[in-house]
Structure formats: C-alpha cells, structure tokens
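Suppose you are handed only these lines of text.
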Amino acid sequence: MRKSGSNIKVVINDLSVSYNDEGNAGDPVIIFIHGFPFNKSMWNKQEEALKENYRVIAYDVRGHGNSDTGTEDFSIDLFAADLLCLMDKLKIDKAMLCGLSMGGYIALNAVENYPDRFDALILSDTTCLADTPEVKEKRLKTIESIRKDGVEKFADESIKNLFAPGSFSAKEKEIAAVREMIVHTTEESLCKTLRAFYERKETCSKLSDIYVPVLIMVGEEDTIAPLAAAQLMNEKIKESSLSVIEHAGHLSNIENPSKFNNQLEEFVSTIYYYG
Ligand code: MLT
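From them, the structure of the protein bound to D-malate can be written out as follows.
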C-alpha cells in the first residue's frame, strides 16, 4: 500500500531513509535527488509545481536530512544502489530522474548502471568530469578543516560559493534555509561524502550510451559546475537540450525557481510515460 505525504520513513539496505511522495499514484513518476550537503527540502518549489500532474518523490540521500548514515564508506555507486532499492521498495519500475550537482552524479551513475529503469533525465548544475588533482587536494583540505573547525564554519565558507552575487540580497530567506540544511548535516557525513567525491569516476565516456531524453540546466553564474561542464554533457548526449538559468549560481532551482520550473515542466510534458 502506497504511503503518500512528506517525511515518510522506509528501511532500505538496513538504512532508514526519509522521503516525500506527493501527487497521484497513477501519474508519471519523477524522482528528485538533492545536492551536497543539502536535503530533499531543496526541491519544495518543484514538488509544489509538479504534484498536480506527476507523482513526485524527493528523498534524503544517506547521511543527509532525515536519512540515516549507516556504517559503510560512502560512494556514488552506493548512493545509486540506494536509489534503486528505494524504487524497488516503492514498486516504481520506471521514473524520470532530476538531480542537482551531487544528485546529478547519482543520476548519471544510476542511468549508466540501470538504464532500463529511467524514462528521462534532468541534470542540473552538475558535471560528468571527475575531480581534477587540484580539486581532490581541496577535498582533503576541506575534510581536515571540517574536523578542526566544525560544521558551522564549513557552512559559512560554502555559502559564499553557492549563489550568484545578486542572490545574496534577493534570496536571503532561501540562503538562510540552505545554511540550515548544511549545519543539519553531521561532520561524519560531510567527510564521508567528500571522500566519495574524491573517489568519484568520470562518466563523460559513457554519455553517448544514454538513449533517453535529457534536459541539462545550469545557473548562468554557477562557478562550481559551470556552463562549460553543461555544454560538454550537451555535446556528448545525443538527445539532450541545454537551458541556461539566468540570475542563478549553483542552486538554480532555488535561485530562479520560475525559470527552472518552466523548463522542467515543458521538458517532462514531452516524455512518453511507460508506466
Ligand atoms: C553539490 O552541490 O552537490 C556539490 O557542489 C558537489 C561537489 O562538491 O562536487
């Protein structure tokens, strides 16, 4: 029996995972995967916009929001395996997948390893490239400084890079909510996720195998996963289109939800749903 609503708990892979499941049971399913280190509430505005015509699921990746952390080391493979377990548990055979940044890493891994389970992809502010040696070095330094200076300091440093300059005055409430999401994440989970990013493999060489329609979105002022990263994926994925979100940095769905939702709704309305 389907449970609908928000903050529902389910046990998958011996792990308690929290998710929202809104909209009507028979409608096409879209699953949202948040970025790092946020949680499913970053998709509230997209859930609101889509739940009339879609079954909308947003979940907390392990170690984030209200999901447990577990004892294993984190990896993008593990995150994608969790997603598939969640789909199985909720008896979802096929879904459209929308991931932002880390959510995009998970979505790309899932579509590579379980191609028959997805109808379409929305990749937002993400990249198929692995970390460069410089970025890997930075990941290790960040782990060190989280252990030394704590999560609050990490949150303050992160916020500086996440948003377009204009968002700092225009989106104060949203920025405060994002900071809350970051400080709600434990030191252990932050460090385990950064280590998973350090180990993350590139997925660019697999993009030509993707045969479902893909919408790529990127905040015009995203400096973390910039336009060039989006263009690279657009070139490599046959059936893809690229949309640049103005007045937005890395969190384009939060900074410019009207443009983001507009593009998203237009795209998903074109997808044939296999049920
Ligand atoms: C995210 O928003 O998920 C992060 O920026 C991902 C990363 O640091 O690679």
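What can we learn from it? The first strand starts at residue 5 and ends at 12. Strands lie at 5-12, 15-22, 29-33, 55-59, 95-100, 118-124, 214-219, 240-245.
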